[in-house]
Write a structure and sequence with these properties.
about 140 residues; mainly alpha; 7 helices; about 55% helix; HK97 gp10 family phage protein
């Protein structure tokens, strides 16, 4: 069993008291991972989405699902709060594309899909931030 010095124990308690900092850092890293992935998948078929309809292709200059002007992709942002991170868009079209519509747009989940595809990286980023913060106290002894 490891023994604590008084100074080491005080450092450990300080680290625990400041765990919110580590959580915030981990969530920030995780949010950036998902945001970057969501932006990168727009305009591709990497997630196996349905092909664009012939009528849609006739209106577009390229076979790039969800990508027209880049405005929806650029609207994707993240924010980090207490014990949560949010990644999303304020563009109404993003909701229609993510969930699909009753008017014939199939769902092409770029936000939830990005979270699913990057799950291991997100868990690692949060875990690394918290672990790094906790083990930092070893260097303070």
């Amino acid at each position: 069993m490891a023994e604590f010095t008084l100074a080491g124990f005080a450092a450990h308690l300080t680290a625990l008291a400041n765990m919110t900092i580590a959580e915030h850092e981990g969530l920030e890293k995780a949010a950036v991972i998902v945001e970057t992935e969501a932006k990168s998948v727009i305009g591709t078929y990497r997630y196996g989405w349905p092909q664009l309809a012939p009528a849609t292709l006739a209106k577009k200059s390229a076979n790039t699902p969800l990508l027209e002007t880049g405005a929806m992709r650029e609207s994707i942002q993240h924010s980090v709060g207490d014990k949560e991170a949010r990644i999303g868009s304020n563009d109404d079209k993003a909701v229609w594309q993510e969930l699909g519509t009753s008017r014939g747009i199939p769902p092409r989940s770029f936000l939830a899909g990005a979270a699913r595809h990057k799950e291991k990286e997100v868990v690692a980023a949060i875990g690394d931030a918290v672990y790094g913060h906790l083990t930092m106290t070893r260097f303070l002894r």
